[in-house]
Design goal:
The structure is a homodimer.
Chain A: E1 2-3, H1 5-11, H2 16-23, H3 27-34, H4 42-52, H5 56-59, E2 60-61
The structure holds a DNA duplex (30 and 30 nucleotides).
Chain lengths: ~60, ~60
DNA sequence: AAAGTATGTCAAGCTCACTTTACATTTATC
DNA sequence: GATAAATGTAAAGTGAGCTTGACATACTTT
């Protein structure tokens, strides 16, 4: 699943560390997410959507199987 | 996290078994989801949104911590 | 060049989403 | 009331999301 986490984070002028603190996750989680190593939990997706003030669908691009 | 899976499924006249087959998950997953026993993966949330022709946010209601 | 900030890798461990199987209970229909 | 369909519970196992910690590699700035 593709995502625009890095783009949205940079657009807000935040570091990975700052983002991780605001979302209450580890920095590793942000790194791995941005690198596309795994999909977020739906809870983390909701947290990101709230922080970025957009929908989950605007951050994560779902391509079937 | 609250969700409207049961309501949307029933609105389509589907059984839990039929829904599980269409989503390619186990029937147990549907039961547990509807009972609110755990949150779906973001992948399953996307599958449900596609099948129900709505957004993830229209199915799952996020309340913070 | 040295020091600090930001980003990255690696590895081990934990939790929970999801599976499978087997059986119980409810709801409908004959 | 018997039978079947739909929904439910219980329990053990697997895999992925996420954590922690330690260390490596840029990129700045002084």
């Amino acid at each position: 699943m593709e995502n625009l986490v890095r783009e949205k984070r940079v657009a807000l002028g935040m570091t990975q560390d700052e983002l991780s603190l605001m979302l209450d996750v580890s920095r590793q989680t942000i790194i791995s997410l941005e690198k596309g190593r795994y999909n977020p939990s739906i809870t983390l997706a909701f947290k990101l959507a709230k922080l970025f003030q957009c929908t989950i669908e605007e951050i994560f691009i779902y391509e079937e199987e």
